[in-house]
């Protein structure tokens, strides 16, 4: 788990871009299964919106993680040994 966290922290934009592309692909695949036939342009619009929502959630989570990680590092630095 630590190796994954270090890779993600070193490749932030790649991680977010990969997650966005995966969300678009998953959304298009899910909407193509056919409950109601949609035009391809409408499928892409929905996929983009789903991917944007996921990206915002990931960015919010990353910001929260970064905030608490920095706060913990500052607390460790101020505690005398």
UniProtKB/TrEMBL annotation:
Keywords associated with the record: Membrane, Transmembrane, Transmembrane helix
Main location (coarse class): mitochondrion
Keyword field contains Metal-binding: no
Subcellular location: Mitochondrion
Keyword Membrane found: yes
Coiled-coil intervals, chain numbering: none
Gene Ontology cellular-component terms listed: mitochondrion
Protein name: HIG1 domain-containing protein
Upper taxonomic lineage: Eukaryota, Viridiplantae, Streptophyta, Embryophyta, Tracheophyta
């Amino acid at each position: 788990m630590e190796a994954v966290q270090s890779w993600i922290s070193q490749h932030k934009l790649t991680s977010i871009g990969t997650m966005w592309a995966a969300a678009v692909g998953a959304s298009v695949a899910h909407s193509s299964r056919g409950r109601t036939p949609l035009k391809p342009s409408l499928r892409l619009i929905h996929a983009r919106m789903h991917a944007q929502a996921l990206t915002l959630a990931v960015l919010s989570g990353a910001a929260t993680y970064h905030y608490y990680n920095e706060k913990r590092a500052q607390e460790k630095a101020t505690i005398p040994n």
